[in-house]
Design a protein that fits this description.
Immunoglobulin-like; periplasm; iron; about 650 residues; binds dinuclear copper ion; binds [4Cu:2S] cluster; globular; about 40% strand; cytochrome-c oxidase activity; 6-stranded mixed sheet; 5-stranded mixed sheet; mainly beta; single chain; Methylamine Dehydrogenase, Chain H
Length: about 650
């Protein structure tokens, strides 16, 4: 373990550190603590590299997928302190998400075929880009299980949009922004019919399809524009991870695939029902497609067919327009990662010990000269693997994903089976260093490590297993994110962080100074739309209105509207009396201007909850279908009179 740390340096450094601190502290305090806690000098140096004194800030902010929780986890680097869970695909009561009217609308945008879905399987968060660099404005993340993309506004870290994929039945290869956030690439995973009908598995080759959905993104308003989005149809290979070209390869997209055998377990009599059928071929296919050209094609009706109201560019159209090609790649690949300048494309195959580095200028030349080695069964031209490759390098067992540093040619790759991070050079194809991680690493996260401008300094290992690294909290363990210092010649593992919220497949890190979130809303804002809320209520405007079905004020109406305000330490009004069966809508405005003065609201027994940030107006709605007396109160401890911030809802049988 100490092989990565130059012993002599560490001893000298350590001794100096101990001596310095000891003299500053006026005698041996540090040594005493080290002895009591059993810390080595290396431990103390590593601790000092990650410690934030109280009130201190981190240099980078990480957005991690929350896996099966359907959420996003935010934490700081190097301190590895969790700052926030962002509610995305799953109701999150403490934020009011799914428990107030406006957030429920966002959640329900994610309905699939009219069905409510209350969770997600998030894999790949992506930050919006300008010139291939993060601009700190928007975050997108995919749901693999119920193929959807969510957009999070980094001005308030709230989910503002969910769109469901109209043709895919699962999607793994998203979200990946194009270099100026024009589009979001989102590749399918398990091939399935694009329509919603039953097609027997025997028709796999004819009726099942894969593809990449190219979502149009308006980066001014931070919204996916569904009518300008489209899908490029691909063969029923299982598409996997994608990356967008940048720099010299801008305008192109790259998507891996596995199961080019099109094995289904049923078609090929005699094949055992296991994954062996999916990895018989020596190679699978890297899909290379020109999204810029495809986007132009999609604008003309004659190039698309409409399936479930969504535009699909058929394979033939993409091929005829020289917009879709295949290159063989080592079998069962996982990550495909484009270098900062866009020239090198590194593919790692789970079942191959090598990383394969493709060179864009070579691929471009083959495309230009129409030098194909053949076509696949769907007529897509195949480019020669050897002629597209810059080279291959043996890294170890189970290479998965890659990240870059600012050092020319330097790349970091996760080795799933070997449980290691390997540092190597994709230009010289030389392995430089390996570091053990704990255990079975999936993705790894560099600081802006997949952009045109990687920041270096740290790599985070996103490990699948923690096993013995933390206090046992039962058979279901937390995940383990490990922070690695990459500023030296060799890597140095600094610290472990347990992550107790689903499997964090991928994470992205941005310089903290690029984020500019608001501390309060303009008074009366609906945080989900950014616009003024219809229920905005200022001090003195509090009232209760009874209206009829036409919306007219009517003492006999069944709809009760409460315009309320929240300010330390009163909810106004403090008494609300309604009739049993009334439809109750409550608008709540937090009048506070002070930073962090959030109030919460619930009425006992009605399954509603709102979190009201300063300036925010939120809305809850329920049928008062049970008679009784129901206390309501503020759920945030907001002042010394927090417990007094309450009132009564009286429901009487008229
Ligand atoms: S990931 Cu989604 S299977 Cu390697 Cu990008 Cu974990
Ligand atoms: Cu407001 Cu407690």
């Amino acid at each position: 373990m100490t092989k990565h740390f130059n012993k002599l340096t560490s001893l000298v450094l350590g001794t100096t550190l101990v001596a310095t601190v000891a003299s500053a502290a006026g005698g041996g305090e540090l040594e005493k603590v080290m002895k009591a806690r059993g810390l080595t000098e290396n431990d103390v140096i590593r601790a000092a590299k990650t410690y934030n004194p109280t009130g201190g800030r981190d240099e980078f902010i990480v957005f991690s997928s929350g896996g099966q929780s359907g959420q996003v986890i935010v934490y700081g680097v190097p301190s590895m302190r969790i700052l926030k869970y962002i509610a995305v695909f799953t109701p999150e009561p403490w934020q009011g998400y799914g428990y107030d009217v406006d957030s429920l609308k966002i959640l329900r945008q994610g309905n699939i075929r009219g069905r409510e879905i209350n969770w997600g399987d998030t894999h790949h968060p992506a930050l919006s880009e300008k010139d291939g660099k993060y601009d700190g404005r928007w975050l997108a993340i995919n749901d693999k299980a119920n193929p959807r993309i969510a957009i999070i506004d980094l001005h308030d870290f709230e989910t503002k949009q969910i769109v469901s994929n109209k043709v895919f039945k699962s999607a793994h290869g998203g979200a990946f922004f194009t270099p100026n956030s024009e589009y979001i690439l989102d590749a399918a995973q398990y091939a399935a019919p694009f329509d919603n009908n039953y097609h027997p598995i025997e028709e796999y080759k004819e009726s099942y399809r894969g593809g990449v959905t190219i979502w149009k993104f308006d980066d001014k308003i931070g919204k996916i524009i569904e009518k300008d989005s489209f899908t490029v149809e691909m063969p029923p290979y299982m598409q996997d991870l994608s990356d967008s070209g940048k720099g010299v390869s801008n305008g192109w997209g790259f998507t891996n695939s596995f199961n080019t055998e099109m094995y289904t377990g049923g078609i090929e009599v005699g094949m055992p029902p296991n994954e062996a059928g999916m990895s018989r071929n020596d190679t699978d296919f890297l899909h290379v497609y020109n999204w810029e050209k495809l986007a132009k094609l999609a604008k003309d009706k004659k190039n698309v067919k409409i399936i479930n109201g969504h535009k699909v560019i058929p394979i033939e159209v993409a091929v005829k327009n020289d917009a879709l090609f295949l290159i063989p790649e080592p079998k069962s690949p996982h990550g495909v990662d484009v270098s900062p300048d866009g020239e090198y494309i590194t593919v790692c195959g789970k079942l191959d010990t090598h990383a394969s580095v493709y060179k864009w200028s070579k691929i471009k030349e083959l495309i230009k000269s129409k030098k194909y080695t053949g076509k696949d069964p769907y007529g897509i031209p195949i480019l020669d693997m050897k002629s597209s490759l810059h080279g291959q390098v043996e890294l170890g067992l189970g290479p998965l994903h890659n990240q870059y540093s600012p050092v020319d040619g330097e790349i970091y790759t996760s080795l799933y089976v070997d449980s290691q991070v390997v540092k190597w050079n994709y230009k010289t194809l030389k392995v430089l260093d390996k570091e053990n991680v704990h255990y079975n690493i999936g993705h790894l996260c560099g600081m802006e490590g997949k952009t045109a401008d990687p920041q270096g300094k740290y790599i985070i290992a996103l490990n699948k297993l923690a096993i013995d690294r933390f206090q046992n909290v039962g058979p279901l363990h937390p995940q383990n994110h490990q922070l690695i210092d990459i500023s030296g010649k060799t890597m140095d593992l600094l610290v472990d962080m347990p992550l107790p919220l689903g499997e964090p497949h991928q994470a992205v890190a941005i310089r903290a100074e690029k984020l500019h979130p608001h501390v309060r809303y303009k008074m009366g804002t609906n945080s989900k739309t950014g616009k003024e809320h219809v229920g905005k209520t200022l001090a003195g405007q509090e009232r209760i209105e009874r209206r009829n079905a036409k919306g007219k004020i009517d003492p006999k109406g069944k709809n009760v509207f409460i315009y309320s305000t929240f300010v330390r330490s009163h909810i106004n009004p403090e008494r609300i009396t309604v009739n049993k069966g009334d439809n109750v809508t409550m608008y709540m405005t937090n009048l506070e201007r002070a930073q962090d003065e959030t109030h919460g609201f619930t009425v006992d027994n009605f399954n509603v909850h709102a979190s009201l940030e300063p300036g925010e107006t939120a809305e809850i709605n329920f049928i008062a279908d049970i008679e009784g007396v129901f206390p309501y109160y503020c759920t945030e401890f907001c002042s010394a009179l927090h417990l007094e911030m309450m009132g009564y809802l009286m429901v009487k049988d008229p």
